[in-house]
Amino acid sequence: MAKYTAPIDEDTRQRIHALPGKVKFAAFMRKAISVFVEELEKDPGLEPDNFIITVTARKDASDKKRK
Fold first, then answer.
1. What is the pTM of this model?
2. Cβ-contact 46, 40 below 8 angstroms
3. Between the CA of residue 46 and those of 16, 23, 39, 40, 43, what are the distances in Å?
4. Is 43 in contact with 51 (CB distance < 8 Å)?
5. 36 near 48, Cβ under 8 Å?
6. Is the pLDDT higher at 63 or at 51?
7. Listed ranges 30-34, 40-44, 50-54; the one with the highest mean pLDDT
8. What is the pLDDT of residues 6-33, one digit of tens each?
9. Other C-beta atoms within 10 Å of 29: how many?
């Protein structure tokens, strides 16, 4: 599997490192990227300004590890 990287600014990097230990950042990013890719597949002409990230109360089991 290929790895993709994108540069982030130092302020964002510091904020990520300051998150509490119980926050599983990688799981959040996997879900966000999955949704992002789905939307780009539907409309490849979208720009970053077209995306708004919000919090929902719904729990999604699709990111849980399978046994």
1. 0.60
2. yes
3. 26, 29, 8, 7, 6
4. no
5. no
6. 51
7. 40-44
8. 888 999 999 989 989 888 888 888 888 8
9. 12
Helix (H, G, I), strand (E, B) or coil at 13: helix
Which two structure tokens, joined as six digits, stand for 52? Answer: 């708004």
Tally of CB atoms within 10 A around 28: 13
Q: Residue holding tokens 């990287």? A: 5
Contact yes or no for 37/51 (Cβ under 8 A) = no
Are the C-beta atoms of residues 53 and 39 closer than 8 Å to each other? no
The answer to whether the beta carbons of residues 16 and 25 sit under 8 Å apart is yes
Determine the residue type at 61: A
